[in-house]
């Protein structure tokens, strides 16, 4: 599965509502409101993202990932995504401008679906992610399904917070062969440690079991 930290960072930032207010004054002087610094990522070069596969540059495409937003300043579409160069998705890939991700919002959940522009000569395997948010727009659960030619992968990640800080996350992944003759479970538990309110380390336990 593609791990794109910048994308989810941009998504979480876009979900936070920035509020500004001005203090009432008894004088007749005009109140000047301070500008609100809404942080938007319009685009970035794909080479600055993190992937768990070897990333090949391709001069036929722009190599740039860009975003669209709605009237609530939420990301609605991400243009550009990885096209895998092998059927198992582990050899490597490159950024293809014709691939994009649609985002829809409903009941504190964000639905992400990978799609391809019309009239291209390949089909996009099923690739869907659901992100569940708490009342503070923090990500508390992420479930994902990815389809490859030889296997499918489902993963679930739970996030735990305390005092406004992410403290831990647990990810469980199942890989199942297309013909159903094997299944492998991966388990990752990560704990975050802070010093003086700054993150100083992440300790992760990793387990793998063939079922």
CA gyration radius, whole angstroms: 20 Å
Beta-strand portion reads over 45%
Helix content: under 10%
On the 0 to 100 scale, the average pLDDT is 80
Q: Using DSSP, what is the number of strands?
A: 11
Shape: globular
Query: How many helices in DSSP terms?
Result: 1
Largest sheet: 11 strands, antiparallel
Strand order of the largest sheet: 1-2-3-4-5-6-7-8-9-10-11
Classification by helices and strands: mainly beta
Euclidean distance between termini CA atoms: 20 Å
The poorly predicted ranges are 1-5, 15-31
Instruction: Spell the H/E element sequence.
Output: HEEEEEEEEEEE
Give structural notes:
- By secondary structure, this protein is mainly beta.
- Strand 4 and strand 5 form a beta hairpin.
- The longest helix is centred in the N-terminal third of the chain and has 11 residues.
- The protein is built from one helix and eleven strands, in the order αβββββββββββ.
- The N terminus is likely disordered.
- The radius of gyration is 20 Å and the shape is globular.
- The chain has an eleven-stranded antiparallel sheet with strand order 1-2-3-4-5-6-7-8-9-10-11, covered by helices on one side.
């Amino acid at each position: 599965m593609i791990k794109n930290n910048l994308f989810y960072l941009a998504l979480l930032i876009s979900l936070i509502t920035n509020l500004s207010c001005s203090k009432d004054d008894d004088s007749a002087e005009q109140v000047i409101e301070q500008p609100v610094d809404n942080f938007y990522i319009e685009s970035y070069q794909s080479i600055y993202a993190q992937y768990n596969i070897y990333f090949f540059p391709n001069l036929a495409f722009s190599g740039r990932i860009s975003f669209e937003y709605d009237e609530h300043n939420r990301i609605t579409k991400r243009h550009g995504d990885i096209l895998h160069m092998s059927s198992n998705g582990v050899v490597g890939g490159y950024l293809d401008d014709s691939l994009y991700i649609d985002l829809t919002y409903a009941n504190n959940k964000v639905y992400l679906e990978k799609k391809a522009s019309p009239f291209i000569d390949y089909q996009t395997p099923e690739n869907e992610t659901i992100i569940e948010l708490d009342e503070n727009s923090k990500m508390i659960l992420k479930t994902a399904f990815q389809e490859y030619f030889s296997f499918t992968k489902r993963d679930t990640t739970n996030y735990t917070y305390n005092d406004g800080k992410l403290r831990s996350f647990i990810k469980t992944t199942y890989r199942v062969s297309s013909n159903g003759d094997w299944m492998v479970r991966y388990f990752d538990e990560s704990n975050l440690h802070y010093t003086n309110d700054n993150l100083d380390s992440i300790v992760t336990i990793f387990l793998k079991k063939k079922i």
